[in-house]
Amino acid sequence: MxxxxxxxxxxxxxxxxxxxxxxxxxxxxEIAKKILQKADDFEIxxxxxxxxxxSLLKLDVDExxxxxxxxxxxxxxxxxxxSEQKAQLSRNx
Length: 93
Hints:
It contains three helices and four strands. By secondary structure, it is an alpha+beta fold.
């Protein structure tokens, strides 16, 4: 998920079903708050990057990200995997 204070975008990557991540939710204002609340409800870490959020907001829901955003989005997924590993280690200790 990429986020800035009044905007949020949720991404999903299904390595078996698609070649690139896609936008599954996006919004500004109250919709952004609801997206962030859902992420919190499901303990999904939030990655904050204003420029990336602005770029992703231009896409439609269910649209795959374009090739020019692959690197930036890959960095989000690497960050997410590292966050999940750290959380798992802290639960096991």
